[in-house]
Amino acid sequence: MKKILVVIDMQNDFITGSLGNDACKAVVPNVLKRMKTARKEGWHIICTKDVHEDNYLETGEGRRLPVKHCIRGTEGAELIDEIKNLEDEWNNYSEVFLKESPLEKSTFGTMELAKVLAGYEIEEIEIIGVCTDICVISNAMILRSAFPDIEVSVNEICCAGVTDGSHANALKAMEACQINISEH
Ligand SMILES: [Zn+2]
User: Fold this and answer.
1) Cys bridge to 160: 15, 27, 63, 144, which one at CB 3.0-4.6 A?
2) Global pTM?
């Protein structure tokens, strides 16, 4: 049985790049701290990456959000260095990350994440990362529906939104759908 920590879209463009903001920057230490405690507690980790192609502005998401981000091959699409360093360090001596990590997705939520996790015996899922009100909530709702009998939680101190208000709204919406909102 595996406890899974899902780390959503901790990529340069969402932290310091084209869609970054101060709240996302400020949450980085909490995300790293949680990843480290999760590892100590024997959790397994899967990171997701939002990855778009050069034609982003012509995609459905791009027409509605015309800000180029996470274009394949650019620095903005990479996971932040702090997480890449952890991956290097940990993969040297243990299998902390699921082999499917980082999982690429072409828009907010991905059915692929549920499919990958369905291949493991999952005991519990915790979700952290950015942005609470877009990609965290989209994937949390998919996982909540895909795994109705296990605990799915979102760790609010390890998430940040587009604005503080939209972050708070998303937490309320997830709580209403039986996603446990935790802080640790
Ligand atoms: Zn995107």
Assistant:
1) 27
2) 0.97
Say how many Å lie between the CA of residue 142 and the centre of ligand 1.
Answer: 17
Strand partners, 125: 4, 152
Distance from residue 121's CA to the centre of ligand 1 (Å): 30
Q: Please give the distance, rounded to the nearest whole angstrom, from the Cα atom of residue 51 to the centre of ligand 1.
A: 7
CA 17 to ligand 1 centroid distance, Å = 13
Q: What is the pLDDT of residues 122-157, one digit of tens each?
A: 999 999 999 999 999 999 999 999 999 999 999 999
Cite the beta strand spans of 2-137 per DSSP E.
Answer: 2-8, 44-50, 103-105, 122-130
| Residue 40 Cα to ligand 1 middle (Å) | 31
Question: 100 vs 24, 40, 96, 116, 118, CA distance in Å?
Answer: 25, 21, 11, 7, 12
Residue 108 has pLDDT above 80, yes or no: yes
Query: Tokens 């699409």 sit at which residue?
Result: 77
